[in-house]
Specification:
With 755 residues, the protein is an alpha/beta fold. 35% of the residues lie in helices and 20% in strands.
């Protein structure tokens, strides 16, 4: 019997195994030789000054656990990481502390790498990308040029969003509730000439493809609403053209309202309703938006809540006794969208210079591809001025150039690209970066064919209409240009939830910010990883409590104690109860990994450990191994440590292999086999009945049935509701009703309570 060191010391074993994995190249993916490629991606972070945010630590852990599970299942997992280092976020911080953005991001990026490594994630560190690196942004500029050549980039004058604090224009997607997404300052409207990408030309495709994407339901819904397709009718009420989606209500239109910026605002008092031939009054009000339809509506108070409120406020007659006209032939059909073209110019310093040249004779001319990258010069006056021009406009040595067409004097564009262009194609770069010839092409066609689209993408819901829309658009453009043969960058996207602390939002002023470093030092990263995942299903996030992580550490200590003592006292025969429970655990874990409900697998592991200690049961060698494989994605270091002890025991039984002098780090260097290279154990149990039938009720009455529902779906109320609503009978009964509440008895009955 070899003596086991009794105490669990994460500060010792965690760095130890990280070093071994790195040395053995366990986290490196054989990009060219992989047989079963699986691309597991997590949204790369902005390197911020505070270092890795706890939300990042949580989300990256969820992604890493999934990747480790896929590895155990035998896939060649590629799990890269990089830094979204260009952009306003990093730049604003650099400005605040008066440090050059380049110096600041270099420093912040190094700190991020240190922290992500400490999390124990299996990143392929040999293929990182940093968007502010000229080797990367050369290709971001190349992407701009492709979009331009495809006729999808144009300069346009428009009322644009301007952030007075960031002193730059912003895209519609970067304005959240009227404020700048980055600094929360209220945005202003300004008329300016800028570069736009015609994302609107893809509105229908962006919308239609959503049906076939396996994405978190609420993200798909957000995208759908943002695209905002409406099919309606344009009708002339004399000189006023209105847009309506309810032409059938025209007999009840008792007034017309114009938006304040409408060209006829305050110029016209009455118009004639073309259906009733009655004269009705015209008003101007802010509830009618400039940017929707024609900026003019017909008011039907009996059917529209906003019109009703307006009619009441202004004492207008409310007509209730009229017929809906179903086959009226009036006006012309029109489709409108909420989506606007993507404004990509930024009057800032810290971004990829837009690769365009303005010549007095030839107009705007694209930079020839052979001249890329257009390097961002290292200047000291990088502060934005807010005069509609970026800091580069003060640098003739940057902007003075020759026209690529006529050779005459010309000037470069001095605005830089929106940072969302940087991240719109990074998933294509990762597998190709640092391959031979990676400086010749943005992405290698063969490698891309093999590795893309991404198999599993995880990240925050806050990017629903930003990054997650933009990268779909860029992928479609590249596909249309023949560079790739798929048009969706990822089939699966999973949105994680948010972490709060002691039921409150984390903020520096409250002093309740969780710094992952501190917790790693105090409890070990395996305990932190387990605790993150134990807080709740990943899509929900959770409430981080110090008591909670303490409790988890106690459990980890216990696992260590119980398994090590079992290791020195292996059972020869398998106990049938243990065997059955272990098999159940394997089955449960398989399902939970795929739905990211890791918390319930952890709970089941806890039950299993209780069973061992309560009933003083001992596992066999094989059983320990199986248990450790399930534990490994969550607590990779602990599982490795215990597994290697198990392996050493095997060696002790074979005295050919001498023990190492310290008796502990007893690795066989030549034949080192990691727990993370084991095959996922097979459960001997029959698969549980996985298909359910869910009854759909409306106000308690049976209206439909969803049959052969997979357990994952049955667990997901949100998705199930979406699916139920698509049932034609349910649709019929829901028509015109308002859903007040949904009551769901899991896997059995879904009841819509309607008013
Ligand atoms: C008459 C009507 C009757 C409308 C009714 C709706 C319901 P939804 O309903 O969200 O799909 N609309 C048109 N242009 C607008 C603008 N510039 N600003 C604000 N509202 C505008 O959106 C379509 C409806 O929004 C249109 O159909 C119009 O009101 C209103 F029972 O016309 B409707
Ligand atoms: Zn010219």
């Amino acid at each position: 019997m070899i003596s086991m060191f009794a105490k669990y010391e994460p500060s010792e074993i965690e760095p130890k195994w990280q070093k071994v994995w790195e040395e053995k190249g366990l986290n490196k993916t054989d990009i060219a030789g992989a047989k079963k490629p699986f691309y597991n991606l997590w949204m790369f972070p902005y390197p911020s000054a505070e270092g890795l945010h706890v939300g990042h630590a949580f989300a990256s852990t969820a992604s890493d656990i999934y990747g480790r599970f896929k590895r155990l299942q035998g896939f060649d997992v590629f799990q890269p990481i990089g830094y979204d280092s260009f952009g306003i976020h990093s730049e604003n911080f650099a400005l605040k502390i008066g440090e050059h953005p380049k110096k600041f991001t270099d420093r912040a990026t190094k700190n991020y790498e240190r922290q992500l490594r400490a999390m124990g994630h299996m990143y392929d560190w040999s293929r990182t990308v940093t968007t502010s690196d000229p080797n990367y942004y050369k290709w971001t500029q190349w992407i701009f040029l492709q979009i331009y050549k495809a006729g999808l980039a144009y300069r346009g004058k428009a009322m644009v969003n301007f952030c007075p604090k960031c002193k730059t224009v912003l895209s519609d997607e970067q304005v959240v509730d009227g404020a700048c997404e980055r600094c929360k300052t209220a945005v202003e409207k300004k008329e300016m000439e800028q570069w736009f990408f015609k994302i609107t030309a893809f509105a229908d495709r962006l919308l239609k493809n959503l049906d076939n994407l396996d994405w978190t339901a609420k993200i798909k819904l957000t995208q759908k609403n943002w695209i905002g397709k409406k099919i309606g009718v344009l009708v002339n009420f004399d000189a006023v053209e209105i847009f309506t989606t309810r032409i059938d209500t025209i007999l009840g239109a008792t007034f017309v309202v114009l938006s304040p910026n409408h060209s006829l605002a305050n110029k016209i008092k009455t118009v004639v309703n073309p259906a009733t031939k009655k004269e009705i009054p015209v008003f101007v009000d802010e509830y009618v938006l400039d940017s929707v339809g024609t900026g003019a509506i017909m008011g039907v108070p009996a059917y529209d809540e906003r019109d009703m409120a307006f009619a009441k406020k202004n004492n207008l007659p409310i007509l209730t006794d009229f017929e809906l006209v179903l086959d009226i032939k009036i006006g012309k059909e029109m489709v409108i969208y909420h989506l606007r073209d993507w404004l990509i110019s930024r009057q800032r310093y810290w971004g990829a210079p837009i690769p365009m040249i303005n010549c007095a004779k030839c107009g705007w001319v694209a930079v020839p591809e052979k001249d890329l990258p257009i390097l961002l010069p290292e200047i000291t006056d990088y502060q934005p001025e807010g005069n509609g021009r970026g800091p580069l406009a003060n640098h003739p040595e940057f902007y003075q150039t020759k026209c690529p067409k006529c050779g005459g004097e010309a000037t470069r564009e001095t605005d830089v690209c929106d940072t969302f262009l940087d991240s719109s194609w990074y998933e294509l770069r990762y597998p190709s970066t640092r391959s031979s010839g990676s400086d010749q092409v943005p992405f290698d066609p063969e490698i891309t064919k093999k590795w893309l689209p991404v198999n599993m993408y995880m990240g925050g819901a806050e990017h629903a209409v930003l990054h997650l829309m933009y990268f779909r658009f860029v992928t479609m453009v590249l596909r249309d240009l023949g560079f790739i043969d798929f048009e969706e960058p990822t089939k699966s996207f999973f949105a994680h939830g948010l972490i709060i602390k002691d039921k409150a939002k984390m903020s520096k002023s409250r002093g309740n910010v969780v710094n992952p470093d501190e917790y790693i030092t105090k409890y070990g990263v395996d305990s932190l990883r387990l605790y993150f995942m134990f807080m709740g299903p990943v899509e929900q996030g959770g409430d981080f409590r110090d008591d909670g992580i303490k409790g988890m550490r106690r459990w980890v200590d216990r696992v260590f104690r119980i398994v090590s003592s079992n290791l020195s006292n292996l059972s020869k025969r398998s106990n049938p109860i243990l065997e059955r429970e272990l098999n159940k655990l394997i089955q449960k874990a398989e399902r939970d990994f795929e739905s990211r409900h890791y918390n319930t697998t952890i709970a089941k592991m806890m039950e299993f450990i209780n069973l061992l200690s309560d009933d003083k049961l001992q596992m066999t060698n094989e059983q320990i191994k199986k248990f450790l494989i399930i534990l490994a994605p969550f607590a990779p270091h602990l599982a490795e440590e215990l597994y290697q002890i198990l392996e050493i025991q095997g060696q002790v039984l074979e005295p050919r292999i001498p023990a190492l002098p310290d008796g502990r780090q007893n690795l066989r260097p030549s034949a080192f086999l990691s727990i993370h290279q084991q095959p996922w154990p097979k459960s001997d149990l029959l698969p549980q009945a996985e298909l359910a039938t869910v009854i759909i009720q409306i106000n308690g009455k049976l209206r439909g049935k969803l049959e052969n529902i997979k357990t994952d779906l049955a667990d997901n109320q949100e998705l199930l509701v979406e699916k139920a609503k698509q049932d034609s009978n349910v649709k019929k009964f829901l028509f015109g009703k308002k859903i007040k509440q949904v009551i769901y008895a899991k896997g059995k009955v879904l009841n819509f309570v309607c008013g």
